[in-house]
């Protein structure tokens, strides 16, 4: 059970430094989308704190011009981890409330329609799931200020 102060602080990090998105993926004629929740910060302690409370991983980005601090990016991308994380912070999120709703809608759709060509669903069901995922992809793109192309 996550303490309420941890949930509220983390929601603030997500609102201020977070990203919720879905990226498209294609291989051998199969298409899908994969979710990603991330929080960036220049303080490694914050990132390690996130990992200690919510699991996940982090990457390091160095600015090529050396005029900015190193950036650490904590991320989770499994459906279970995303669901657990978002359910904890959802009551406290203000700015990215609709992003959280969109990502939870994505999580409710469930696992991949295809796993490298092995159908879990029949073609019609897979197409419906894929269309629903694409709708959420564009919903999040719009929320993140990206223009449809």
Structure characterization notes:
The protein has 149 residues and is an alpha+beta fold. 47% of the residues lie in helices and 25% in strands. The protein has one domain (4-143): Endonuclease I-creI. It has helices at 4-17, 44-54, 79-89, 97-109, 123-143, and strands at 18-27, 30-41, 57-61, 71-76, 114-115, 118-119. A four-stranded antiparallel β-sheet has the order 1-2-4-3. Strands 5-6 form a two-stranded antiparallel sheet. Helix 3 (79-89) runs antiparallel to helix 4 and helix 4 runs antiparallel to helix 5.
Structure in a nutshell:
InterPro entries: Homing_endonucl. This protein is of the alpha+beta class and 149 residues long.
What is the topology?
Layout: H1 4-17, E1 18-27, E2 30-41, H2 44-54, E3 57-61, E4 71-76, H3 79-89, H4 97-109, E5 114-115, E6 118-119, H5 123-143
Offer a few descriptive terms.
single chain; alpha+beta; 149 residues; Endonuclease I-creI
Strand order of the largest sheet: 1-2-4-3
Sheet with most strands: 4 strands, antiparallel
Which blocks of ≥5 consecutive residues have pLDDT under 50?
Answer: none
Gyration radius, to the nearest Å? 17 Å
Average pLDDT, rounded to a whole number, is: 89
β content, as a range?
15-25%
Protein name: Homing endonuclease
């Amino acid at each position: 059970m996550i303490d309420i102060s941890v949930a509220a602080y983390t929601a603030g990090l997500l609102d201020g430094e977070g990203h919720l998105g879905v990226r498209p993926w294609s291989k051998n004629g199969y298409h899908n989308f994969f979710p990603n929740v991330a929080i960036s910060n220049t303080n490694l302690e914050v990132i390690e704190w996130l990992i200690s409370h919510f699991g996940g991983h982090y990457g390091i980005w160095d600015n090529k011009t050396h005029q900015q601090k190193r950036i650490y990016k904590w991320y989770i991308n499994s459906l279970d981890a995303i669901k657990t994380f978002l359910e904890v912070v959802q009551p406290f999120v203000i700015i990215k409330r609709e992003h959280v709703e969109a990502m939870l809608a994505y999580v409710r759709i469930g696992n991949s329609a295809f796993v490298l060509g092995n159908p879990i669903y029949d073609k019609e069901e897979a197409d419906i799931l894929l269309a629903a995922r694409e709708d959420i992809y564009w919903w999040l793109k719009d929320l993140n200020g990206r223009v449809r192309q």
